[in-house]
Amino acid sequence: MRKSGILMHISSLPGPFGIGTLGKNAYEFVDFLVAAGQSYWQILPLSPTGYGDSPYQSFSAFAGNPYLIDPELLRQQGLLTDDELSAFDWGSSNRVDYGQLYRDRERLLRLAFLRFKPDETYRSFLQQNIWLQDYALFMSIKDHFNGQSWHNWPVPLMMHTRVALAACTLEMDEDIRFRYFVQYLFHQQWHALKDYANQRGISIVGDVPIYVPLDSADVWANPELFLLDENRRPKMVAGCPPDSFSADGQLWGNPLYNWEKMKLSDYHWWLERLGAAVEMYDVVRLDHFRGFESYWAIPAEDQTAIGGKWMPGPGMDFIHAMHKAFPDKTFIAEDLGFVTDEVRQLQLDSGYPGMKVLEFAFDSREAGNYLPHLYPTNSVCYTGTHDNATLKQWFAEAAPEDVAHARAYLGLNEAEGDVWGMIRGAMGSISNLCIVQMQDYLQLGGEARMNIPGTLSANNWSWRAEPGFASKELGERILQLTRCYGRI
After folding, report:
1. Buried-most residue among 21, 42, 45, 71 (CB within 10 A)?
2. Using an 8 Å Cβ cutoff, are 480 and 37 in contact?
3. What is the pLDDT of residues 228-264, one digit of tens each?
């Protein structure tokens, strides 16, 4: 079945609350997708944003982002008042100001918490989400120590000792219950939105980052599952080797998994994590899939990724565990980056579709089979991802010979325009699924790029669409193209 969808994170939706939320504008975007003949809405991780405001660097692999909770829906529930909503300065509407959200959003949610009356649905939520206990305690202790990393906490807490945790649980009971409440709100609002989308024929594509940060509830509570020393510091960290895009490679700094230890429990933690993901999404994109075959391990003391080495991942043993646990679930293998024959074989053996990024097809620095006539049908074609330039930016900044190659290959013309011609090339590919960034349909430039990997900038992760972006006219043009290539 040939289908198509649009990539746009929740945070990028317009609206009055400083960031896109799970409220009115999200429901209207679902309606736009339906009108445009789309079948999928792809989003970025819904986890709380962490270092660099990135949803890929979260304090929890399981929790939802409190910033995405819609305040208007809380007002309708009687948890907030009109006066309380109007008392907050929500900031500029055209970019996300994470600093302001950090200062204000929790204060608002604590007002709602004061009016909340737990019921059976809430109690059932607590029982079904065991991860909440470590997460809520972690965040409460972290807040108590002014946001410091858990390595700077008193040793008994840092080492996750039972006596110290029990004392904190008693002392911080109200704050812990607040964090339970926030997660309950998020999951209630998210599942209501997802149900709305599903009922209208829209499936949600979610994203699971392969690694978690060192400063996370996951590493703090499960240190034996990571390659840490006796002081619970990383022995080696994650990243990517040098390539034509980066002479030093990429030093991500995440702790690496102790795959041997994980195998002894039949990958229990990973399967729990994926189980939570398949409850949240209809399709799960596995970030950095090549890391399951082998991963770049960098000595923790190094300042660049140059000194790293390849180490073997769990390979098909882990994939078999996934197949057994989730026989009917759909996954996408993000098989970009330094791809070897072994990685290609793992992707083929897994049965999961890989990714094809059309911008890469014409990049003379990028070796790979990204030209559409080479695609297998079991693949997902993207114009670009959140880590790439928008199409308009790519045409403005790419090497002239690369742009000339794209124009010749795709038969681009002035009447249609380069951006829409590139989208046409993606839609016309034989990939079963085609995903286009919303920024590309809007023909936006570098100002709308979602992220530049390896950089820290207020522009990363902060783009928001203008009100009225999902116009009827745009929907009709997308519908016409979608219908033309049989993706409805």
Report:
1. 42
2. no
3. 999 999 999 999 999 877 889 999 999 999 999 999 9
